[in-house]
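Q: I'm writing up a methods section and want to include an example of the input and output format. Could you take the sequence below and give the corresponding predicted structure tokens, formatted cleanly so I can copy it straight into the document?
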Amino acid sequence: MCAMFFPIGDDNIKGGYPPTVSYTLIALNILAFVIELQQGNNVNNFLNEYGAVPATILAGERPYTLFTSLFLHAGVMHIFGNMLFLWIFADNIEAIIGNTKFLIFYLLGGLAAHVTHIFFNAGSMIPTVGASGAIAAVMGAYLVMFPRSQIKVLFIVFPFRVSAYIFLGLWIFSQFQNSLGSLASNTAEGSGVAYWAHVGGFIFGIVAGIYFRNNNDFNFAPSEANRFNERDLV
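A: Here is the clean output for your methods example:
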């Protein structure tokens, strides 16, 4: 989605597990970003050390960066956008599957995103940072589990509502298009965005969402809309 078109709220589930992990992840990301800001002129070295570099990972070095990179961001807008999406889409999933399962799912989603990105950028020495891949997994699972949930979207200054399957479908379509474009131009990271990580995370999320939907007792038919409690950012 472009910067003028982003979500600001959704239908929020009443009851279920509290979103402890979701909010803790947001807090940890913000804390990591504060630590980044404190690096001053050494911030690039910091990101190179803790970001996931495809060529380095394939050489068997610094495997821990597959996880530390999920908490690092390249700028204020980068972390703001990621945390906004995490805040909106994560809690409903955690409410259904539970805190521990959600944490495992989130980390595996980030790992799946890295694997996909590395596959298409095996020789890259550019560090990958950001929670986008893991959050893409969250969005994929959300699409399967809550396709009829209404997402409140802000276009420039005009709010409106759209079904989750439309919003998330358009989002992943744009990511996939950009991924194919990066292959055609042979500059997979030329835009500074790891689109294949988004695609890989999203696909993992869809598979996980199918599993969650088939193994949890819940049903969100329109007639049960009273089980939702509207939650907006503004």
